[in-house]
Amino acid sequence: MGCMLRSDLMAFCDMYLQPETAFEVIGHLGEMGCVQFVDMTPDVKPFQRNYVTELCRCAEMERKLIYMEGEMNKDQISIVEYNSMKAKPLPLNELATLENILEKWENDVLEMSDNQTTLLKNYLELTEMNYVLNQIGPLMGEAEMSEEAIFGRSAGGDTGLLGRLFVLTGVVMRSRCFPFEMMMWRVSHGNIYYKRASQDAILQDPRTGQDIRKVAFMAACQGEQLYTRLEKVCSGFRVNLYTCPETHDARMDMMLQLGVRIDDLEKVMKKTKYYRCKALRTVSKQWDTWMVQIKKSKAIYHTMNMFTLDITRRCLIGQCWVPDLDLPKVENVLARESEKAESNVESFILKSDDNDDPPTYHRTNKFTKGFQALINAYGDSTYRELNPGLYAIITFPFLFAIMFADVCHGALMLAFAVWMISVEKQHMDKTSKNEIWNIFFGGRYVLLMMGLFSLYTGFLYGELFCKPHKLMKSYWMNTYDKETVEKNHFIELNPVFETNPPYIFGVDPIWKFAKNKIMYLNSLKMKISIIIGIVHMMFGLFLSLFNHTYFKRHHAIILEFIPQIIFLTSLFFWLVILIYMKWFMFSGKHTELKRGAGCAPLILILFIDMVLMSTSKPVEEECDAYMFEGQETIQRLLVFIAVINVPILLFGSPVYLNHIYKKKKEEALKKISQFRRYQRRDSDKHTEARIMKEIAKYSTPFGELMIHQAVHTIEFVLSTISHTASYLRLWALSLAHEQLSEMLWVMVLSKLGLRETSYYGGPKIFIIFAVWATFTLSVLVVMEGLSAFLHTLRLHWVEFMSKFYSGTGYPFKPFSFKAIFSNEGKDDKDEAGCKKKVFTY
What is the DSSP annotation of 651-678? Predict the structure, then answer.
């Protein structure tokens, strides 16, 4: 796993590769996934790079495979999946062989697809014509399609119409038949005989293969001019027109001929589809392996394009970031490949100096990966900064469990996580297209820890589907006789009387039956959330001390950390102390009036009076306003100490840094003047750029430093109040989860099912239990769990990590085949220098 405390130490290296071994070396590095290459020629255009030809050949072969994948999807042919990630990339000689194979298969599939499209187009035309004859023929009956047959004879034997009669028959899209009919009537001004078939036909589009619905129609008009207009309307609506014979016998003969031709065409289509599917199934057996090999080769050539080719030395020169722990493995790969190729000059790697900040790399395993992903979603750590992911392994599930405290709900979540862990070997190397499943599976160990902690806090709160569970004898003891208990619906238990030993583990289950349980749980959970929140924030502040020490920011320890911790301690840690003092100093067991529960001062009022520098008043006249003598003086002193630390936070760092920057800037200016005086080689430009960068760093004006520190100071002072209040969500969500669980039990399962005493009780409770279980799983476990998860995420990102975490780094992205195949997005930058070949399939 490595150490998650800080990111791995990174080394900036120069890599020298022999051209004949470069492909194999980079292929092995891609399998290892521990080297991040830097583009040596960012200004060179893609089509001018050294290996653009090979890269474009791989891109073209990938395009062919994607085309054949689309054809297989059309025929619902599934791709045979093997453990193809182990397939090795293809060198240049083997790449040419595969290129010829794919060229042959693509041509065959293209030819068969074109033939099938042509056959489908002919079949569609014949089917549409047959459909028109079947639907329009019955409209005409035995009559002929003439003026007399359609309009009938007038009494005088004349139709009463002038001009030649024209008849249009065809099919129109079902979705456009009503606008088409309306347009025909408008164009003809109503001088048209229009008839639509009563039944539409479901046909197949020869290009897309999707079903389309069309309806047959017949339109009769008089006059060539009107006929021309109607033809233009049909053309605009993309209507297929078919000539219908005028006589009934001719129509019947054509229908018989169409039936024979359709049957023959179906046989040909069936045979053509069989050979096409046979070819595609053959391709599907090798498709996955071919795609992996091509993608690996393509990624290797893209990486080789980042190198510079030194013609004089006959080698490829590149730069890369490598973790120090993996540097020996990289050297072994270079030495092994050079020995295998029997090269006179070995490939090697050397450490180099670089002014840029190294990338951040946290070495994780399958357990810690999910927790680290939660942190990286906020921002990547600055190089060698303390990693919050290490502490989130415990703090994240613990804060979640405080809001999601229920033994049974936690057990359901735990069972789901254990199931995912049990089948992880089947899904580790597979990337599902279901994003929700990928999220849950990636966080299976996070869910495992959340379920375990929810079990623990569920036992603490005494929650088991909102029902109490008894682990030991209750603290409260019934001191009343049987008759008194039977007469009273509620009885009062006074702690002054005889009681049992305290209930050590968690909340006493007897509180579940108390009338004032909400008041008790409200007070308890609110105080616990305040205590946990302040301790969590102080822990984050102490982590900033380790960051200051590691990066040697000694001034920040005195001018930032110490004032911040004093400010937080003087105000809010004092609030924690007051809570504990109230718990230990005041009790219902005390016989003394001033130490009884009725005289316990209100912590919130005490804290408000402390900040406002006012005197607190007692709860009752016979009670004391404060817990001990001199408390008011101590509280005012604490407020004074907190206030005087604000100017130190505001002005300390800017004044000190401005003084230091002036000295270091003068030293850097002396360096650059001496350097330019004695500079003789072009290679010294790198040193000059480094010195100029140092000068720019120390040229920050005092006003900018002051504004930056003022923002941080105001944010810290205000956030101590807002962040403390933000931790009250632990109390609010915990109480809401408990009450919602109780409401579902009482109002659904208990009231509707468990109280049934009739013969229908068995089937009824079965149905009611199913409803209750559905609501419990969907609302309480899934929705409430997601809500608690998001609130916990916010408490870590904002309230905890803001105390020590800057998150201004950038991630280490090594050249890795595993990362390439797990990324669903396609990067077209690799193919920017290739000519696109466009096909219309």
Answer: HHHHHHHHHHHHHHHHHHHHHHHHHHHH
Quote the CA–CA distance of 98 and 105 in Å, as a whole number: 11
Q: Is residue 196 a contact partner of residue 181, using CB atoms and an 8 Å limit?
A: yes
Residue percentage of the chain with pLDDT more than 70:
90
Mean of all residue pLDDT scores within the chain: 86
Q: Which string of b and e fits 92-121 if b means at least 16 CB within 10 Å?
A: eeebeebbeebeebbebbbebbeebeebbe
> Does pTM top 0.90 for this prediction?
no
pLDDT reported for residue 553: 92
Nearest to 257 by CA among 268, 272, 245, 240: 245
Give, for 216, the enclosing helix (H) or strand (E): strand 211-222
Please tell me the chain's helix, strand, coil percentages from 3-state DSSP, rounded to the nearest 5. Answer: 65, 5, 30
Q: Which two tokens stand for residue 18?
A: 């022999």
Between CA 805 and CA 375 the distance in angstroms is 10
**Cα–Cα distance for residue pair 730/788, rounded to 1 Å:** 9
C-alpha 781, offset from chain centre: 20
CA dihedral 573, 574, 575, 580 (to 10 degrees): 100
CA–CA gap between residue 334 and residue 338 (Å, rounded)? 6
Domains of the chain (ranges; CATH) run 10-109+279-351 (no CATH), 125-271 (3.30.70), 364-530+731-808 (no CATH), 553-727 (no CATH)
Does residue 172 come out as left (phi exceeding 0), alpha (psi in the -120 to 50 range) or beta? beta
Question: Across the strands, what pairs with 10?
Answer: 323
Structure tokens at 119: 């056959």
**Which pLDDT score is estimated for 313?**
65
- Taken as a whole, the chain contains a residue count of 841
Helices (H) and strands (E) in the chain, counts: 27, 10
Taking alpha carbons only, the member of 594, 537, 597 closest to residue 567 is: 537
Mean pLDDT value of segment 512-528: 88
Q: How far apart are CA 189 and CA 688, in angstroms?
A: 86
pLDDT attached to residue 837: 54
Tokens of 765: 């409770």
Instruction: Note the pLDDT of residue 832.
Output: 63
Nearest CA-CA partner of 373 in 722, 839, 793, 769: 793
- Predicted local distance difference test score (pLDDT) of residue 140: 63
CA distance 432 to 424: 13
| Section 356-377 average pLDDT | 92
Alpha carbons within 13 A on the beta-carbon side of 514:
15
Give which of 389, 347, 387 is closest to 367, Cα–Cα.
Answer: 389
Calpha distance 331→644 (Å, rounded): 57
pLDDT in tens, 150-191: 555 544 444 444 557 888 888 999 888 899 989 989 888 888
Cα first-last separation, the chain? 49
pLDDT(417) > 50? yes
